[in-house]
């Protein structure tokens, strides 16, 4: 399938700017409220459970609905889905910024996730058809991947600035600026593309995967109170059964929500798994870094945001280097070594102490984490979509995004359970700085184990020559299924 953007090369780079801006807003919204949570909790009288759901509601709705959103984008047109998603995201952000009660804020965050689930796969699919081959595609995906990799940390910085100098509500209202730019720019520089063939939606598949992912994430969120609780076990089992049902349905329906060929490929499946682990770290583990900076080291919102800067700066500095290395060494070495570097950074963070100096205990660890995640994100977006037929571009990009968001939701829940076990179930205000720091340290150890697992996944699943793994480095993306 062709896009008229290829007939107007001068517009494709502006399209990259618009689409990267979209990626930034949906990723940073996973973390921008983190630093503002203490003030939002006080202003709206949120319970600790509601506080966690301010983060989880967004990631859960986003991740659970991405497959459906990707298919809808394929059918109604990716540009149309992009614009609808942008406008809906803006409306939900406005509602959240004006929320007067805790449940309203949680609901608004869920609605943001719903529209992000339409917006994000449309953006990535548009990027795929706009840059279908060669060096330009490699550069475009490197930019997009860098934005994806740094968006979470940028969200913490921006959240700190807005909370310190304006109000926590601006962590939601600032999205209106992105929406105006995105809608105006998208209307001008993006060209419509849509999948060919049947436009029937797989309702059974949509229900089973959405309820399955929701049950799974909710089960993990209940693990904070104990893994052996009946509700925790029940929802985890229900989630597994529903996802099994989803696979069964997809193997039998004529027009599946997720054609199994998209995930059955070993290399692409490995990329999706690594994407999930990356989401667990960038969405889940960074929350506890924020808590340590504010609750233990006593930093204000702005100072805590600035203190997170070494992570995105390291990733952005590495990005052009990794981009040049990609055609030379291929994605596999990056995806094996990158997670190990990130694991070293996270393990270093586990050694934090209540009186430790930031420049000694935290900044070097964040640099290592940023370098490692840079080696992960630069090849990952491209690899996850390599060889995907144009008809499946939207759903494949949805899986890539869904993996990161669901990984973030599950990661946050697992790390919260590790933290809760370390503090013995006590509230944060009831625990001294030594025990609090020790609990944060255990979450970083768990996160480092996640990254080692990502390296193993890359070593065992991402196999093949450079041309086989990334045909887009010099060839057209194959259209055969």
UniProtKB/TrEMBL annotation:
Membrane topology of this protein = Multi-pass membrane protein
- Record protein name field: MFS transporter
Report domain SSD positions: 334-424
Report the locations given in the UniProt record. Answer: Cell membrane
Q: InterPro entries, per this entry?
A: EmrB-like, MFS, MFS_dom, MFS_trans_sf, SSD, Sugar_transporter_CS
Entry-linked SUPFAM superfamilies? MFS general substrate transporter
Does the keyword field hold Cell membrane? yes
Tell me yes or no: is Membrane among this UniProt entry's keywords.
yes
Q: Which domain of life is it from?
A: Bacteria
What organism does the UniProt record list as the source? Microbacterium galbinum
Major facilitator superfamily (MFS) profile domain residues are: 15-466
Ranges in a coiled coil: none
Which regions span the lipid bilayer? 12-37, 49-69, 81-98, 110-129, 141-162, 168-191, 203-221, 227-249, 270-291, 297-322, 334-352, 358-378, 399-422, 442-462
């Amino acid at each position: 399938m062709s896009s008229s953007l290829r007939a107007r090369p001068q517009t494709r780079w502006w399209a990259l700017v618009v689409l990267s801006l979209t990626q930034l807003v949906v990723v940073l919204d996973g973390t921008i409220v983190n630093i503002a949570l203490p003030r939002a909790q006080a202003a709206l009288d949120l319970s600790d459970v509601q506080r966690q759901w301010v983060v989880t509601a967004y990631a859960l709705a986003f991740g659970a609905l991405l497959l459906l959103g990707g298919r809808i984008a394929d059918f109604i047109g990716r540009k149309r889905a992009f614009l609808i998603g942008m406008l809906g995201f803006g409306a939900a952000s406005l509602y959240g910024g004006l929320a007067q009660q805790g449940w309203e804020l949680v609901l608004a965050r869920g609605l943001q996730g719903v529209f992000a689930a339409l917006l994000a796969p449309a953006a990535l699919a548009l990027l795929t058809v706009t840059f279908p081959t060669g060096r330009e595609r490699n550069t475009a995906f490197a930019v997009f991947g860098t934005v994806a990799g740094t968006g979470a940390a940028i969200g913490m910085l921006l959240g700190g600035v807005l909370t310190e100098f304006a109000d926590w509500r601006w962590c939601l209202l600032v999205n209106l600026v992105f929406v105006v730019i995105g809608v105006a720019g998208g209307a001008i520089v993006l060209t419509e593309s849509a999948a060919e063939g049947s436009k029937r939606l797989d309702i059974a598949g949509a229900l089973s995967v959405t309820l399955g992912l929701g049950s799974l994430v909710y089960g993990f969120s209940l693990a904070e109170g104990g893994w052996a609780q009946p509700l925790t076990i029940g929802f985890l089992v229900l989630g597994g059964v529903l996802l099994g049902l989803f696979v069964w349905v997809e193997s039998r329906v004529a027009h599946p929500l997720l054609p199994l060929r998209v995930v059955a490929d070993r290399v692409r499946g490995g990329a999706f798994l690594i994407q999930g682990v990356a989401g667990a770290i960038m969405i889940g583990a960074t929350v506890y870094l924020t808590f340590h900076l504010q609750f233990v080291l006593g930093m204000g919102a702005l100072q805590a945001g600035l203190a997170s800067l070494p992570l995105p700066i390291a990733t952005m500095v590495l990005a052009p280097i990794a981009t040049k290395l990609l055609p030379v060494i291929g994605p596999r070495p990056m995806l094996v070594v990158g997670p190990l570097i990130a694991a070293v950074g996270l393990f270093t963070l586990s050694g934090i102490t209540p009186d430790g100096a930031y420049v000694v205990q935290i900044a070097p660890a964040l640099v290592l984490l940023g370098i490692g995640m840079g080696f992960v994100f630069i090849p990952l977006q491209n690899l996850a979509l390599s060889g995907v037929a144009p008809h499946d571009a939207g759903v494949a990009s949805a899986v890539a995004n869904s993996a990161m968001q669901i990984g973030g939701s599950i990661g946050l829940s697992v790390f919260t359970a590790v933290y809760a076990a370390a503090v013995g179930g006590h509230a944060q205000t009831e625990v001294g700085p030594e025990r609090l720091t020790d609990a944060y340290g255990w979450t970083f150890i768990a996160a480092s184990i996640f990254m080692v697992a990502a390296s193993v996944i890359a070593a065992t699943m991402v196999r093949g020559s450079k041309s086989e793994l990334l045909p887009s480095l010099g060839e057209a993306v194959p259209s055969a299924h």
